[in-house]
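User: I've been going back and forth on whether these two constructs are worth ordering. Before I decide, could you fold them both?

Assistant: Sure. I'll take them in the order you sent them. The first construct and its structure tokens:
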Amino acid sequence: MSTVSWDEVKRQTDEQRRAAGLPVRSPEERQAAKERLRAEVRAYRLAEIRREQELTQREIADSMDMQYTVA
């Protein structure tokens, strides 16, 4: 059994995607996607905590002296 580096696996995957006509993200695009996902997870977790504490968004905003606007 041979060992293949993670970088080689990613390179091969990108090649296969290109050959199949599928989009291949740049490192910058991948990083941006990771950051968006992290932000989404943080927002979800904060909402969970708020609900566990039986607080409304308005109550949280008021406690932080923030302007609260309903969209």
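The second construct, handled the same way:
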Amino acid sequence: MRTAVIVDVLRTPTGKGKPGGALSDIHPADLLARVIRGLVERTGIDPELIEDVLCGCVSQGGEQAMNIGRTAALAAGLPESVPGTTIDRQCGSSQQAAHFAAQGVIAGAYDVVLACGVESMSRVPMFSTFAGKNPYEPLQSRYPDGLVQQGISAELISAHWKLDRPTLDAFAAESHRRAAQATQDGTFADEIIAIDDHETDETIRPGTTAEGLAQLKPAFYDPAIGERFDEIDWTITAGNSSPLTDGAAAVLIMSEERAAQLGLTPRARFVSFAVTGSDPLLMLTGIIPATRKLLERSGLSIDDLDAYEVNEAFAPVPLAWQREFNADPQKLNPRGGAIALGHPLGATGAKLLTSLVSYLDRTGGRYGLQTMCEGGGMANAMIIERLD
């Protein structure tokens, strides 16, 4: 069986996903194009060799419509012969792009492929593509009581795993502390391409404390929802949730043989993949069965892994995952997660992979796990191995 390897990774710094954010003046296709160009220049690869561009993006409307993967590839100056497609697996879209890319290499369908993602939440706001309509309406017969938004799912997770507000706020504060420390130490520098004068993640709030976060009001309080779910204690706030964010990231993936032919030194290889569906009411818990499936397929245990990137859509998501696997909290999002670093939806999967590869390189770790919860009740998970 062929081996799929990661040759290099690159991401933008994050920008606040609102007007005036550091990246808000840049068209999302141009934002991704800059990362693609940077990755091509950094690796020195002939762009004619790229066989496909697989791009994750969630809000595929407005400036992100009409297959932004192809638009960004052309904007980056890639040859017209290089195709592109855009994938929507909600928050895991660009992680799924990486899965598809690596699986295509393993199957022999590709030798060289680019997996990437982009989301400009300042220019294409979340839910703006719904046009005022309920996307879950066709599911009413199967779920007569109705589905809920992700913030309520996070509240239900907090209740089920008995995660109280102080625990969530402490986790969020630690995410900011770790991210701020990594920024200060310069450990993100090798994975970030500067965008104009913007070089660091704008969403980090150094000095954040659990005591300060405790002053914030619950973000999703709804008396009607409270009547339906009397177990909700209303613990989720803007402070223990990921912020709206702009960003892009890209990963160059190829077969081990082609990398050797081109004289390129791979940084990591793909070990195992998993994807699963889960209860769309508790839509953020799919990372748990996905991880179980992944560990079974890989033959590895949680203790064999040197780092876990579990997307911090909301604080209870990684905390529930950590409890289920009794995972080492020091290995969980060791340089902070999306609560501090931001969650540019369709770009986050590639962004996390960029950081995971970089972290394993810097620490000499061998195996890293990445998993992401996804809207509608799904999850992706994968394990990579650093190569010397």
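Notes on the second construct follow. The two ends are 21 Å apart (CA to CA). The CA atoms of residues 213 and 239 lie 6 Å apart.
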